[in-house]
Amino acid sequence: MPVKPSRGGGSQVDVDVHIQSNRKSDANATPNTNPGRNGADPLSLGVDPKPRNRALVDDTDLDAILPAPTVSVRSPPHPAPVLPVISRPLENYWIKSAAELPKANGEGFRLYRNRQYVDVPDGGVVLVAMEADTGLYRARFASELIPSGPLLLRDTDSGIWHPHNDFNAHTVPLTDASLSSLRTELDFSGVEPGSDGLFRHDGKLYVVIHEHSYQVMQDLDASNPRHKVWRLVNPKDPVATESANIYRASRSGETRAIVRNEQGTWVSILTGLRGGMDRNDPGPANPLYFHRPWLDSPGPSAVQPPVVATTRAQVKRYFAESTDQHADDFIARFGETTVAEAELKRLHLEFPYLDREITKWEIAYKGNDSAERARRLDIGARMRRLYKWQGEASEKVYRDGRLVGFRLDLNFGQRGNLALPVFVTRLSSVVALRLEGSTSNNLGNLFSRFSHIESLEVHKLSGKNNGLLSDINILAALRVLEIRETNLWLPSVGHEHFTGLSRLQELSLTNCSIWPGLRLIGMNELRVLRLRSCDLNLFPSGLTFLPLASRLRVLDLFHNPGLGDAPNVSLMSELRELNLARTGISQPPVGLGLANGPTQLEVLNLSHNPLAVAPSLRGMPALTEVDLSRTLIQNFPEGVTSELPKTRLDLAFTSILAIPDTVELRTAIELDGARITDPTSLRRLIAARRQTGRDVWLDREHPGSGINHWLHNVPATQHFEKIALWNALAGQENLTMMRRFAELVRTPEFRVERPLLQRRVWSFLEHFKEASLGEQEALRDMAVTEPSPGKMLDRLEEEIKNFDPTWQHQPPHHLPKRPKLD
Known about the structure:
By secondary structure, this protein is of the alpha/beta class.
C-alpha cells in the first residue's frame, strides 16, 4: 500500500527519477487499443533483450518521469479484461538514477511521490506495485497501471528484493520467537529421530527445533522428488487432525513451511504461496518479510503505524462494530486501498437489502417450536456477520496459506419441509459450506447463491438426497467435497454421481451408502480419494485410467469388505498413501514393488484382509509405514531393510513362522501375536527386547492365569509348598501383580527357556514373601507400571539388588550376534 510522504515539517527533496531506456521509444510503439490502460499497451511494446549497461547511462538523461497526474478511479460497468503478464528481465525495469532517492524504510521501500522503489540485485533499483489478487509486488514501468514485471520478494537480512524463483532458493533459519505459538508439550529428549529427522508418537509426526517439539504434516503440493516440504501446525487447529499426516490447505489453522537442509537442520522455506505468507503468520515471522503492515499485532499500548490505523479506521467507518481483527481479515483479502474501498462501498450499499431478506425469512416461521425459531435467528445472525467479514477464527478458510473467506455452517434442523435460507443478495465472503439436518426441498436455489464456493461438507443429511446429487453439479468450482453418513442413491442406473465437478481435487465419502457404482470419469484433477465404509462392491470406474491414475496421491478405501480384488496401481506414480484395510482382498495390488509403480509411496495399509501373499516393498525408498497386521501372510515382505520402512512395519497377528536372518529386529517392527515357532527367531526376539527395551513379539493370549503354568516338571513333593506360596500372594493386595506374572507365558522365554523362566519366577516370589513392606510396595508398583512382561521380570530382579546386594538371581541371557544384512 503506497504511503504518502509527509507534507509538513522536514525538508523537501527533489529527485529526478528515470527509467532505464531498454524499450523502443513511445513514438515507435504500437498505439494502445485497450481503453483504460493508462498509457502504452504492454503487449504491443517492443523490448530489446539486451539491457543497457548502467555505468554508461547518463544520469541527466531527459527521459525523466514526470509527476503522475491525478487519476479518478470509478468502478467500471463491466470488469476490464485482464491482460497476460509478459515475461521481461528484471534489468529492463531498472531506473536510471537512484542516487537522490530517500533511503529504504524498515519495510524495504524507498518512498517518493506516492511511489515505491526497491533495491534489487546487482545494484539496481526498480519501481514496484502490488498485485491486487496476490498481495505480492511486481516490478513495473512508470507508464503502466498494471505491473508487468517479475514478482519480487525481500530478503530481510540484506534488504534486497529478489525475483520469486523456485522455492528451493529461499530458505532461512528458524527462530524460537517465531515458532512459540506452535510448540507442543512433548519431550523427545533421549529419543532418536528417524532417518528423515521425524519423531513418531501416537500416530502423529513431530520435529524438534531448538529443543522444542512441533507437530508436522507433509505438504504434498509444495514437495518435489528432491525436497520434502513439511508444515509446522498447531495441534489444536483443524489442519492438524488429518490421520495420514498430510497437510490440507482447505482446513484452517496456523502453519509454517519447513524443509531439512543438507546439514540435517530444519529451516523455514518459501513455497511460493499466494499472498506470500503462511497461515496467520505475523509479518516479522515471515522468512522473507513481505509488506503486510496490517497483519502486525502490536500490543494495546503500542503506537499504530499510520497505514494500519487508517486502514482499520476505513473498515470501521463502514461497519462500526468491526474489531481490529475483522478489519485485518478484510484487508488481508483485498489489500490495496482502492480495491478495498470499492468492496467496502458495495457491501455497505447491499447490506440493507440482505438484512431485510434475512429478517423476512426469520419472521416467516409462525410455529410454536422455539428451537426452530432460535435456529433461524442463529443462522441469520451468522450470515449477517460473515457478509461484513466479521468471522470467527473457527470459520476462516485459507487457500495456499492466504485467507480467502469463511465457512458457513447451515443446520437445516429436523423439519425437512421448512424453507431454506435462500436470498438474492450474494454472500461472496462465504467460500465453504457445511450442511447438516433434514430437508425435502431442492438445494438448487441455495447452491446457485454459493456457486463460487470451493469446499462443501455434508454431514448426516437426510430427506431428499436425490436433490443433493442432482443439484450439487451447480457448484462447478468445488475443489473439496466431503460427505458423511448420507445415502447417495441415484434415481436410476443411467444417472451418475458428481458429473459436473471436473475441478474436484479431493473427494471424501465416509459411511455413505453409494448406489449404483461410483464413476470417476472426467475427474482428472482428483488428488485425494477417500471412500471409507461406503458398501462398495466394485472399485470406482476410471480409477486406473490416465490421467487420473498418474495424479492421484491418496487412495483410501478403508472398510469396504465387498471389494475382493485389489486395484492395479501400476500407473499411480504420484501415490503417497494407499489404504485397503478391511476390504477383503486376498492378493496385493498389482504394481507394488515395480519400477514403474508407486515409487513415492509412504503409507501402505493392507491390514485385516485375507491376504495370503505379502507385497514386495522393493523400489519404494520413501516408505514410512506399512501395516500388514491380521492377514494370512506366512513370510516377511521382500525389501525390508534396516531403514525401510522408516518408522513402522506392523506384522502383528499374522501367520509368519520365522524371521529371516537378513532382517534386523528393531523398534519399528511389530510382531505381537504372530505364529513364530522357530527357536532361533525366538531367541533373537529375546535379544531384541533387551536391546530396544520393548517387546517386538508377544505370543497370542493363553487361556488361564493360575499356577499350573509354573508347575511344569516340578517334583510332586514340592507341589504343596509351591501352591501354598502362590495362594499366600494371591490376595487382593497383590492381585494385579500376579496377573502381570501370568502374562509371562506370552514371552519368547516361555517358549524356548521355560525351565529357566520358571526358576526365576519362583525365586522372585519366594523373596517377595519374605521382603519388608517397603520393598514389597516398591516391587509391586514396578510390576504394575512396566508394560513389557519380559522387561518387568528383569527390572524386578535388578530392584531386589538395591535392597539386598547379596541376592543372586538366574544369570542373564547372552545376546546373540547381530545378524548381517545382504
